[in-house]
Amino acid sequence: MHARFSPASSWVIPRGVKKVKFRSIPLFLSLLFLLSFGCLDTRVKKDLTLSRDFSPRAYPTLGVINLDPRIQFSQYVGAELLKKGYKVKEGETVGQLLKKEGLLKEEAPDTRTLAKIGDLLQVQGIVLCSVLEFSRFRDAYRLGIKCLDPNTGDTLWYAEGSKESRKGQKSNELLKEIVVACLNRLPLLPGQKIS
Fold first, then answer.
1. How far is Cα 45 from Cα 163, in angstroms, rounded to an integer?
2. Domain contains 191
3. Core-most of 23, 93, 151, 190, by most CB within 10 Å?
4. What is the rounded distance in angstroms from the CA atom of residue 143 to the CA atom of residue 46?
5. DSSP state letters, 44-82
């Protein structure tokens, strides 16, 4: 014969088992909640949108331009594009050349200026790097990376990413982390392998 289940007997604590004090349970739960809440925001919030017209084969050489003179991160964008197999023209020499020609400003260039930049750099696409938001108080960034066709001004792809730094993390490490996460899904140039 089977023993009958009695709800009253299920609440009885067997001998030898220590009782847990109820005031430690809320403390444990609140600590668990705080730890999980703090760990939720450790990843980069990112988005990459590709145009239907974008074909990596048609845009093998890209010029990378930093639009914000105070916060430089175009070197990280250039490095990620090189890993994907693209040829990249980037750096201070490009910036100095464009300034010398009067083509580099803090705002995004118009279609006529894009065409001049494309001809000058001999590139099929121009990647504009901009800081959309920056919070010195929280040390957080929101970056925008846009690739344009210099002949038409059409957007080929657009990546955006944001993150707040971890304690002790340097700004340049944070910028690099955001860029790497944003461009992770950008297609490789055909014939290239992920490095």
1. 6
2. no
3. 151
4. 9
5. PEEEEEE-TT--GGG--EEEEEE--SSS--HHHHHHHHH
- Token pair for residue 154? 């059409």
- Which residues form the domain of 162? 43-182
Which residue type sits at 6?
Answer: S
What's the CA angle centered on 66, arms 145 and 177, to 5 degrees?
A: 55
Does pTM top 0.70 for this prediction? yes
Determine, yes or no, domain membership for 194.
no
Strand order in the sheet with 140-148: 45-50, 155-164, 140-148, 125-135, 61-66, 87-89
First-to-last alpha carbon distance for the chain, in angstroms, is 68
Q: Where do runs of H (alpha helix) occur along the chain?
A: 24-40, 74-83, 92-100, 111-121, 171-182
The pLDDT averaged over each successive group of 10 residues in the chain (195 residues) is 54 60 57 46 86 93 90 94 93 80 80 91 94 88 96 96 89 94 94 62
Number of domains in the chain: 1
pLDDT value at residue 38: 45
Residue 111 is part of a domain; what is its CATH number? 3.40.50.10610
